[in-house]
Each structure stands twice: as C-alpha cells, then as structure tokens.
Amino acid sequence: MAKAVIQAEAEADLGRSAQKRRAILKAATEVFLKAGYLGTNMDEIAALSGVSKQTVYKNFASKEALFVEIVSSMTNMTGDMVHNDAPKLGDGDVAAYLEDYAYRQLAAVLTPRIMQLRRLVIGEVGRFPELAKVLYERGPLRAMGMLARVFEGLAGQGHLRFDDAMVAASHFNWLVMSDALNVAMLLGDAAIPKPAELRRQAAQGVRVFLAAYGAGK
Amino acid sequence: MAKAVIQAEAEADLGRSAQKRRAILKAATEVFLKAGYLGTNMDEIAALSGVSKQTVYKNFASKEALFVEIVSSMTNMTGDMVHNDAPKLGDGDVAAYLEDYAYRQLAAVLTPRIMQLRRLVIGEVGRFPELAKVLYERGPLRAMGMLARVFEGLAGQGHLRFDDAMVAASHFNWLVMSDALNVAMLLGDAAIPKPAELRRQAAQGVRVFLAAYGAGK
C-alpha cells in the first residue's frame, strides 16, 4: 500500500478507537449514576456502549479505573470551563470580575450530573474511599488551587491582600458555593438554585470576601 | 393495691418503656450506619436491642419513622449542645465570643457519627429523598436559624451590622464549617480535622465574617 493510504487507515483506526472510548465513558456514566458503584457491572456498560466486554477492558483495566476516568474527565472539564474561559480583569472592577468568576463556577458545578456524582461517591466513602478521594483532589482541591493562583495575580496588581492564598481561595469558594451545594446535596437536583439565585449568592459571597480581602481601589 | 404501689408500678412501667425505646434507638443507629438504609431491617434492630419486633413497631410505626427519630434526636442534641451551652457575651470581646461559638459548633458537628449519618442520607437522596430532607431541616437549617437569632441579639447590642440575619448566619456557618465538612465528607472520618486545626479554621472564618459584618467597638 502507498504510504498515504496506510496513514489514512491508521488515522481511521485511531478515530474509531477514540469513538469507542467515548461511547464507553458515556455509557458507564449513565450506568454508574443509575445503579451506584457497587450495582454497576462491566457487562452492562459493554452492552449499552455497543462494544465487547473485551474492548471495555482493553480501554479500562477495571471498574475502578473506569470510574476514576469519569470523575477525572468530568471534574477537569468543569474546572477548565471555569478557569480557562475566565476573562481578564484588565482595568475592570474587581468586584464585578469576582462575581462573574463565582457565578461561572456555581453554574458549572451545580449541575444534576455533578451533584449526582458527588452524592454517589459520598455515599460510598465507607466501602470505596478511593472514589471520593479522586473527586476531592480533581474537584474542589484543584479548583481552589487554580483560584489561589488567580488571587495571587490580583494581589500582585494591588486588588487583594492576604497572608495565605489557599485560605483566601477556600473562603471565596465556600462563601460562594456552600449554601447552594448543601441544598443540592440534601434536597436533590430539583433544589439546585436557578441562575438568578446563583447570581445573588455569588454577589453576596463576593461582598463578604472583599470586605476581608479587598485592598481598596 | 394502695395508691402509692399502683403509682410506683406505673412509674416502673414507664421507666422500662423509656429504656426499651432508648435501646431500640441505639441499636437502630448502629444497624443503619453499618448496613445503610436499604440494607437495614427491623428484625435485626429488634434482635440487637433485645426486644421483640412487636415492641419495635409499637414504638416506631415504620423503618422510616425510626430513622427520622434518629436523625431528629441526633441533630437536636447537637444543635442544643452548641446553642444552649453558649456563654453570654456580656462585656466580652465579640471576636472571641464568635470564635468560641464557631469552635463548639465544629466540635459538635464534625464527629464520625454525624458525618456517617450525613453521608448515608446524601447517598440515598435518589431513592429516599425524605431522609435527607429531615437532616437538612433539623440540622443546618435549624442551626442557621438559631445563629440568626443570636446575631440579631448582637446587632441589637451594636456588635454586628447586616441587612438579613439569615444571610449573615449562612455566611458565618459556611465560612467556619465548609472546609472541614468537605474534607470529612470526601476523605472519611479519619480526615476530620483535629481540635487545634478546627480552632484555627474557626478563628480564620470569624475574622472574615467580622470584616464584613462587624460594627467596630
């Protein structure tokens, strides 16, 4: 075969592999959230994703590896969405900038899918502590780390003042998120606040945050 | 029988009833936390508490009623402990007063038993939404309501300033509790912060709270 043909076929193989992998992840997410971690088996995931069980195992060594991949990709996507899409502050108002950041974080995290995932791993901490540990590290811990770096930048520009960027990031994170998160955890997806209420909570949280950490204009 | 004898026997009956009720609640708490809500049955609770299944049902109409009673008594006890034992502010320092309140709340709530209960109901929100609703109402919502009344008193004495006592109470609650609660939820009982760390988090949370809501001296 000509070199170009071989290359095209290799690319098509790669495309098919990536497609299968995506189908497995999508099906697995459905099954995990519906049946719980213990109640999920690889046969059902294979059947739902339209691939063989062997293909599932070729992509993911175990049920745990598959679950960890789901948590990672979901939390990475959410974190990137909040962080990478963040506008630059420029000459703008720091309060408005932080309110926007807070609202985008709330809107990205307070989704039925992520709330269901969080409830699932919390309910399984006793039996499967590793699952929640992954969610903790890739979710809130990573988000607060990214926020701490943003805050260091803002402090460098004279907008914020603090001793410990991680403590400031934690206070910001929980001032903004906790009420909505607690309600969603305990009262279910239907209790996730609507966008207008999330904006109100973002603004109220930022006001308290800036009273403590703002450096004036 | 003489009146005194009848009365003494009636009191002994009441005492035995109360004792049986306590034994059932204690046994049920163990079984629920070990086996989960779905995995718990009334036979096991009866066996562990040393009473007949009939006696269990005489005290609690259903598994749900029994669970609700456990959540209620555990959260009421915790809330009362934080709230009723609170010292009066008097002429003292409002920051020290709030730090003490915050620390006592953290120490009362961040216990393995309450964390296990919270994880259990969160994991069952999909199947048994009523359980978490009870925890929400008797736990954080009640605690924040009591806190709001404390804050209204402090505002009346000129120590705090706010538009909405419930928003101030929510900010206080989550500034102080969220980091520890999130860690305990996701990393398990062994990750519950030690008293010195809880004191540090209480002090940091109060500092931010007072920057926004303090009224100076």
Topology:
The structure is a homodimer of 217-residue chains.
Chain A: H1 3-35, H2 42-49, H3 53-59, H4 63-84, H5 94-109, H6 112-123, H7 129-156, H8 165-187, H9 195-213
Helix pairs in contact in A: 1-2, 1-4, 2-3, 4-5, 4-7, 5-8, 5-9, 7-8, 8-9
Describe this protein's structure.
The structure is a homodimer of 217-residue chains. Chain A has nine helices and no strands. Chain A is mainly alpha-helical and 217 residues long. In chain A, helix 1 packs across helix 2, helix 4 packs parallel to helix 7 and helix 5 crosses helix 8. The model of chain A has no long low-confidence stretch (mean pLDDT 92).
Keyword list:
homodimer, 217 residues, mainly alpha
Outline of the structure:
2 copies of one chain form a homodimer. Chain A is mainly α and 217 residues long.
User: Span between N and C termini of chain A?
Assistant: 68 Å
Q: How many helix segments of chain A?
A: 9
The average pLDDT value of chain A, as a whole number, equals 92
Q: How many beta-strand elements of chain A?
A: 0
SSE arrangement of chain A, N to C? HHHHHHHHH
Specify the overall morphology of chain A. Answer: globular
Query: Which chain pair shows the most residues in contact?
Result: A-B, 38 and 38 residues
Structural class of chain A: mainly alpha
Proportion of β residues of chain A? under 5%
Oligomeric state of the chains present here: homodimer
Rg of chain A over CA atoms, rounded to whole Å, is 21 Å
Regions of chain A with pLDDT < 50 over 5+ consecutive residues? none
